[in-house]
Amino acid sequence: MIEIIPATTDNIPDIQKISAVAWPHTFKDILSEKQIAYMMHWMYSDESLREQMEKQHHRYVLAKEGEEFAAYLSYEPNCENTGKTKIHKIYILPSHQRKGIGKRLFDFVLSQARENGEKAVYLNVNKNNRNAIAFYQRMGFYRAGEEVNDIGNGFVMDDYVYEKPLDHE
Ligand SMILES: CC(C)(COP(=O)(O)OP(=O)(O)OC[C@H]1O[C@@H](n2cnc3c(N)ncnc32)[C@H](O)[C@@H]1OP(=O)(O)O)[C@@H](O)C(=O)NCCC(=O)NCCS
Q1: What is the pLDDT of residues 1-15, one digit of tens each?
Q2: What distance, in Å, lies between the first and last C-alpha atoms of the chain?
């Protein structure tokens, strides 16, 4: 059985344990080793995760199967005062993918966003992350745009923006 549990700063090691496996697995054929190392430190150090949770209003949830944490998702209601929820991250352990956990996590965020009266849920995805794009399309998201973001050290994130309006259902 899968449980969806709100995470706190106490769960930072649980999030890091999943990201250490899922992140390189996802991007090994998409980004250089140097960019993977840079981005993992930037997003998953103790300080960064604490700041996301305490200052940047990112909410983390974990999916637990039995005694094991199998996935995390982070999201931000009313991101940049848009009246839309942004999903910042979703990572399922490779051994637990394609078993419905991603859908459970998305259903959780979509229902929170609807309860909060949000207009839409959106996210950024690397243009070459075909598996995630297939999943987002299956979840009813459409391509709303594209963005290149400079993340420092000579690296960029070359993304599509996917969005699911909530008032069209
Ligand atoms: C992409 C990801 C979040 C999907 O989660 P998941 O738990 O594996 O997906 P689910 O089992 O919940 O799938 C839900 C639906 O999407 C479909 N789907 C999922 N991955 C798919 C893929 N790669 N290709 C086609 N369809 C896919 C499933 O078939 C399922 O459809 P159904 O409802 O008709 O059965 C997960 O595989 C993952 O963590 N990938 C690596 C990390 C990543 O890329 N994160 C996104 C960064 S932007």
Answers
A1: 999 999 999 999 999
A2: 29
| Mutational pocket test of ligand 1: of 131, 147, 149, 163, the residue with most ligand atoms within 8 Å of the beta carbon | 131
Please say if the pLDDT value at position 169 is more than 90. Answer: no
| pLDDT tens, residue by residue, 43-96 | 999 999 999 999 999 999 999 999 999 999 999 999 999 999 999 999 999 999
In this structure, the residue with its CA closest to atom 29 of ligand 1 is 98
Q: How far is the CA of 138 from the centre of ligand 1 (A)?
A: 8
Question: Can you tell me which atom of ligand 1 is nearest the CA of 123?
Answer: 48
**Which atom belonging to ligand 1 lies closest to the Cα atom of 92?**
39
State mean pLDDT over 155-159: 97
Q: How far is the CA of 141 from the centre of ligand 1 (A)?
A: 13
Q: Go through the domains of the chain in sequence order and give each one's CATH number.
A: 2-118 (3.40.630.30)
Amino acid 43 reads: M
Angle at 144 between CA 139 and CA 150, to 5 degrees: 110
- Beta strands 142-152 and 84-92: pairing type? unpaired
